[in-house]
Each structure stands twice: as C-alpha cells, then as structure tokens.
Hints:
It contains six helices and 26 strands. The protein is mainly beta. It has an 18-stranded antiparallel β-barrel, surrounded by four helices. Strands 1-3 form a two-stranded antiparallel sheet. Strand 6 and strand 7 form a beta hairpin. It is globular, with a radius of gyration of 23 Å.
Amino acid sequence: MGNFRAHIQLFSYIYLLMVINRKFQLLSGLSLLCLLLTLHDLKGQSNLSLNTYNSWTIHQLYKQDSIVFTTWKPILYIDTAAQHFEGSWAKRKLFHEHLLILQKPGFNIYGDIISDTYIGSSNRTIPTSNGKRSSKNPSMNSRGYRIFGNAGTKLWFETEFYENQGKFPAYVDSIIRRNRSVPGQPLYKNVGDAQGIDYNYSTARLVYMPNEHFLFDLGYGKNFIGDGYRSLMLSDWAFNYPYLRISATWNKLRYSLMFSQYVSEVPRGRDTIERNRIGYKRKWGQTFLLDWNIHKKFTVSLFETVMWPDQDSMRRKDVNYSMFSPIMFAHGSKSPSGISNNMMAGLNASYRVVKGTTIYAQAVADNLGSSGTWKSRYGLQLGVRSTDVLTPGLNLLAEFNTARPYMYATSSVNTNYSHLNQPLAHPLGANFREGIFIADYSYKRFWFRLELLVSKYGDDSTSLHNYGRDIFKNIATRSAEDDVKMLQGVKSDLLFGDFKAAYILNDKTNMRIEAGLTLRNDKNSLRTYKDRFFYIGLRSSFRNLFYDF
C-alpha cells in the first residue's frame, strides 16, 4: 500500500508541473509514458538525486574518469550533495536547501522561487529614439521558479519560468533593438524609451533512460556540442527551441540524433504586427553526432547538421520527409519546392592529458570549395581547460576560434544557421578570429571569475555590403567572389574584459551577492565604442546568459 501511494503522489506531482508551465505540457504524452515505464522500478530504490552540469559546475565533469562521452551537453550526474542540514527552517531554506523538497522511496522533487536582480552604472547612455529620458543605469529584475526531480535513475525532469524587466548596457541594448530579441533569450516588448524591456523565459526538459544503452531527451531548451567555452557546431548562445534527442550507446560508441525546430526570422520592420498575426516562419534541424572513445583519454566525434525549410515563399508546407531519416548523411538535399538545405559537417576531439586537464578541438565545414573563394567556408577551434590548477578551486581555460567569411550563411533565412535572429553557433557570426582566457576560483562560499577576450573581425562598411560576417544576409549579395580573405571588409578590433566576485548564500539555488565590472572596446576606422559597466546585485539561477561579444 505504501508503494502504491508513492506512485500516486509521483504521478500527481509531475501532472502538477505540466499544468504550471504551459511549455511543459508539450512533454505530457512522453512524460506519462516514461513515468509508467519507471513506476515498477521504484520499490526499494534509494533516494538518489540527479542533476545536470552547468557553467558553475562544468569543471567537475572533466575531473571524472567514469564519464567518457563529454561532447553533447547537458549531461546528467548523480548528485550526492547533502540535501538536509541542521538549524531552523528559515536558516536551512535560505542558506543550505531547496525551498521545496519532496522525497519518497525512489523519487525526488525539488523546487525554488528564484529572484535575480541587480543595479548598475554605465559610462555610455542607453540610446533612445527621441533623445529624451536617457539612462546610464542598466538594471535587471527577474522573478521565477525552478522545479526539477527524478524517478530513480531512469527519469529526470526540469521546468523553469522567469518574468524579466531590464535595461542593458548600450552595446547589448543596440543588439537587442537590431535583432528584436535578447541575446540567448526571447522576443521582448518595449516598456518605454530607455526605460527597459519586458520579456519572459521558460524552459522544460524530460530525460528518460530505460537502460545503460538508450537516452531520450524531449524538451524546450538548449543543447551544446563541444568541450570548450564556445562551440562552432551547436552552442547554447541562442534562445530555447523544441527538440527531441535520442542517444544509443554501445561499448565505446555513442550515436546521437536530434530533431529540432527553429524560428527562421523575426521581422525588423513595420511588418512585425502582421507577422505576429500570421506567425513566424520556421525551419527544421537534424543534428547527428557519432562519438568514438578510441582510448580512455581520447574521444573523437563526427558531426553533421542539416537545416530544412518548413514553408515555401507562399507559406505552404515545404517539408522533405527524408529530414526524418535517423541515419547520418542519409537524407535528401532539397525541399519539394526545390530549396537546397544547409548541411554542415565536422569533427570534435578531446584528449585528457592528465586528470583534470583536457585539450580539445573542433573543425566544421559549411562548404569546402576552392581555396580562397567564397565557397571555402569553415571554422576551427583549439583550446585547453584545466581544473584545480596549483590549488583546489582554481580552473583555467584558454581557447582560440575562427570562422571563414560567409560561414553559416545561405541564400535564405529559412536555411541559415540561426534561430530567432540569433546565431546557433558563435555570437560573432563569421569572418573573425578570437582568443579567450577564463579563470575562476572558489574558496568556501567565495567565488571569483575573470574573462579576457580579444577578437578581430571584418565588418560591413554599409548595409549594402556583405563581407561575410553577418550570417543573416543573403549569401548571393556577397561583396567578394574569388579573392575572399579572412577579416575582409572593415577590419575591427574587439577587446572585452569582465570580472565578477560573489559570496554564495545558497549553493542549491546559486543565490549570491555579486558585483561585476565589464570593460569593452570595439573600434575600426568608421567608429569607436567604449563601454564601462559596473553592477551589484542579489542574483540566483544557473542559467547560461552570455554578453561577451
């Protein structure tokens, strides 16, 4: 009888999550199926908790000898950290525990109310259309919740929702106004000129692992392919999207495929209202990854991704059903109306030099045409990351990235490598070289992070030119044909420095008192931008939000 009651309670809790978050309702069918398949295994199981590695804990992943496939993230792990502490209820919830803890034999559910706020000062005025009511005080006010849990070691689920009102530093604000979306986040509505923007953020994920060989991941969220800070294959820089990922593991091989849907374009002109009425055009993605653990220290991954249009120019369905092929490289090349898909392929490699130190690399190609022409489009990455360097808690990363002009671009927004006016790979687009150094250090409840970024890129001199950096421009409008060089166009220099210091109040919710300073110089022969931004706030959540571009 006790086990039956536990089953009923678990069933009720997950149903409640579906009702709370409308995005999670999309997962209801599969979640109920997975739940039924796991119920019979709950009896007698201990309260093992599952969680995912995030930007604050990713260094722990590369210290694990037992995890050999690290390329596709997020990755689940068994969380052995203590969930209960001594002291009053208020002290435990504020400094040590999740707000909601529901534990029964074989399953756990955790929940938190999240608040993420800061106020800052910037040297540059946030631009306005009328020159009035300007502001030099970026700020953020986010409120939301996160609920996650697991049923044994076979089922893991998560849902988050945030309501946000914010004002961003001038360089971020200009990107937001141009792209009609917040970097790594969704569309927005304008609160008022220089008074900030309003937007919400939601995500949901359901992971089912029936055995050690198979994994099913259905969600509305982000994925990341690679071992570095950036990814030239698929990064977590763009906003959430619906997807289904399936992985099969056998011995030293893991084969993964993902079907996903992206928003082709958010209009930047007066047709925004009309597009909102009829809906945005969308596109489909197929992503494949074959991991081969050649040696316990060395893994090589073969990558392919394909972009398919969902509609033709008349908004009629234009789906080639070979896009549902589960086999890498076994698919068509054009939609029924004759639109060519966008196929990219590449290799990812990682080598564990010693425990905690990994060298990694990526090579990805959009096209390998004649050298020096516009058809020669590829990207390269090389990096090293190390944990507990010289002293416990000090983690270092150094990385180089480059992408040839016109990489990721096509003749249509319905097939270019983007989502919601945001690149799916590198935030700089293409036609750039970049070097990144990141150091973070934690000691007890203190945490520090330093990032230095140096980049050179070739920009367009006017909106009529296309030198290959802007992946949203039609590749047919290219300004160079047979003599395409790296950094062609207006040569620009970007220098970015960021320092953060925090005192962690609760490591379960990442609630912390945080202060930060950002220095950014972006200059070329046509313009010079200098941003200086300082902030302090009470921050929470583990979301990866990037403004280093």
